[in-house]
Each structure stands twice: as C-alpha cells, then as structure tokens.
Amino acid sequence: MKSSDMVRELCLKTGISISELARRVGQSPQNFNKKIIRDTLTAEEMIGIAKAVDVTYEESFVFSDGSRIDLGEKE
Fold it and tell me: 62: domain CATH number?
C-alpha cells in the first residue's frame, strides 16, 4: 500500500475529507491533493497527518483499537 492509499483509507476511517485533512496539516487542499496524486508525501508529512487525526504513525497508522493501516500491506 502506498502512502497516498494509506491517507485515503485514513480519511475514510476517520470520516474526514482530504481537503479537511489538508487544512488540519496547514496545506492548501490543492497542493495536498497534488501530493496525494503523485504519492510524494514525506515521512515528516505523514507524521503531521497522524498528529492531525490523533493516531500513531510508525510507517503505518495505528488506531486506539489496535487496527492498523501499514505502508507495506498489499491491496
């Protein structure tokens, strides 16, 4: 699973839009969406995304119930 796929799934599981997530991390929705499309999110941005929705990032998103979205998972 690519980082952009992880972010999309994170938005689905948290019930927020990509535009809302962009605003929470201090980026314009347009710029953030381009990064999603190109799959060019940095590790620092992934950490910021995790903080913005109150989950842990360990090259995966870890929810309080223990469920995960891992970077290396196959679709």
Answer: 1.10.260
Question: 19 Cβ partners below 8 Å, 6+ apart?
Answer: 29, 32, 33
**At residue 60, what are phi and psi to the nearest 5 degrees?**
-160, 160
Range of 28's domain? 3-67
Flag whether 74 is in a domain. no
Q: In one letter, which amino acid is 48?
A: G
| 13 CB burial (10 A radius; 0-12, 13-18, 19+) | middle
Number of domains comprising the chain: 1
Predicted confidence (pLDDT) per residue in 10-20, tens digit: 999 999 999 99
